[in-house]
Amino acid sequence: MGEDRNVTSAIPPTTAVVLPGTGSDEVFVRAVFGGPLRALGIRLLAPPPPPGERLAEGYLEELDRLADEHGPLLVGGISFGAHLSAEWAARNPGRCTGLLAALPAWNGPAGRAPASLAARLSADLVDENGVDGALAKSSDGVPEWLAAELGRAWRRHGDGLASSLRTAAAHPAPSLEDLEGLDVPVGIGACVDDPIHPAEVARAWADALPRAEVGESTLTALGADRESLGRATVLAWLKAR
Fold first, then answer.
1. Percent of the chain with pLDDT over 90
2. Domain that holds residue 154
3. Which of the two ends of the chain, N or C, has the fewest CB atoms closer than 10 A to its terminal CB?
4. Strand partners, 4
């Protein structure tokens, strides 16, 4: 990110807390955002997922705790993690310096959003087949990198995986009206070839937010380089500042 050297020098030291998506984990967060944030001198904290039904409530409480400990935070997340971080930011404008929202999946109630339906289907597969059986079915035909990510993260969630997936599937994202009141710089990352996290949702978030930019990448790029999504999101945040 050398092309942003002048912008980088103007960024004060800060702490970023970034949350993973549904069924994912902090290992993936670090792979996506670690390098791009380190290049800006920003410390990344990536807390592990709270278990089962505590997923949403536990993460919101963790953001409260970390803001008490570190002061105002740059918050963010991937997919469901983007929803939770935006929800927290909208409720805590004085404790948030910015938002990194990669792959938002819907706004308001989930309804029949593809990501919500996929999480519910995955939860059913886990209940019916166990984690390993569900992985065998879910990994069939998906790219090798994604199958490896699912295999690691789902096993780490253990017995709480199905409850965690259902919690995420049912939890409302911020409404567009909520986003309209969030006056901090926001970088939104979208993969234009991702049907589960439609780029149209990212653009709707950006249109609603007072200070937001969208950075675009692809799932193909993500498969080859995890940081491609992080760079797109962080660069969009820099442009929104």
1. 92
2. 114-165
3. C
4. none
- pTM beyond 0.85: the answer is yes
Residue in the structure block whose two tokens are 């927290």? 88
Distances (CA, A) of 202 to 74, 113, 157, 197: 19, 13, 28, 8
Locate tokens 């069924």: which residue? Answer: 23
H helix and E strand count, the chain: 11, 6
Q: Which tokens is 154 given? A: 């789902």
Are residues 195 and 159 part of one domain? no
Average pLDDT over residues 16-21: 98
Mean pLDDT of 194-203: 98
Q: Which residue is listed with tokens 């990110």? A: 1
Task: Give the residues across from 217 on adjacent strands.
Answer: 191
Do 192 and 119 lie in a common domain? no
- Which pLDDT band, with edges at 50, 70 and 90, does 12 fall under? low
Residues 25 and 98 in one domain: yes
Q: Give bridge partners of residue 19 from the DSSP assignment.
A: 77
